Amino acid sequence: MSKHIGILLALMLGLILTACSVEPNPAYPILKEIKTQRTTSSEHILDFRNMANSEWGRVCFFGPYSVNTSQVLGLNWELSDHVSISDESVLTIVFASDTKVTEYAVNPRSNGDFSRMSGMCFLRKDALFVLDEMGKYIHKVDVVKP
């Protein structure tokens, strides 16, 4: 009996140590910045130009069931190789240079809904987004003021 308890304790200790050694989500700073901007911008503008690392030149948005992302990106990088594409509660934000994907973040729609821009990319210098009348983010340049 004590042998079984010893094995059980060893297994539990192993599980605890494994759980404690899990790497933090590398996308956390991006998701945190989106949330910060959403809650502090009185004009409902999100400025992606200084988000993520310094290597990217464009940001792309991919909603659920996005396929052929390599064609949109112009790179050999398929979203489905990195994240589940069937989760309808998230959208993946991909930061890319001319030669590679530099970072990506799986963003819950509750942290900003970018679904109207799924399948679209924007140059870094143009990476400004604003809430539309439906509460979804769109490219700021596309907003026509009366």
User: Uncertain runs with pLDDT below 50, 5 residues or more?
Assistant: 13-24
- Following the backbone from N to C, one meets helices and strands in this order, namely HHEEHEEEEE
Largest sheet, strands/sense/barrel: 4 strands, antiparallel
Q: What integer value in Å does the Rg equal? A: 20 Å
Number of domains: 1
Helix content: 25-40%
Integer average pLDDT? 84
What structural class is derived from the secondary structure elements?
Answer: alpha+beta
> Strand fraction band?
15-25%
Alpha carbon gap, first and last residue: 79 Å
Structure description:
- The chain is α+β, with helices and mostly antiparallel strands and 146 residues long.
- The chain has one domain (25-142).
- Helices cover 25% and strands 23% of the residues.
- It is built from three helices and seven strands, in the order H-H-E-E-H-E-E-E-E-E.
- The strands form two sheets. It has a four-stranded antiparallel β-sheet with strand order 4-3-2-5.
- The longest helix is centred in the first third of the chain and has 19 residues, at 2-20.
- The protein is globular.
- The termini are far apart.
Name a few traits of the molecule.
146 residues, alpha+beta, three-stranded antiparallel β-sheet, 7 strands, globular
What's a quick, concise take on this entry?
This protein has helices at residues 2-20, 28-40, 69-73; strands spanning 45-47, 58-62, 90-96, 101-108, 120-123, 128-131, 137-139.
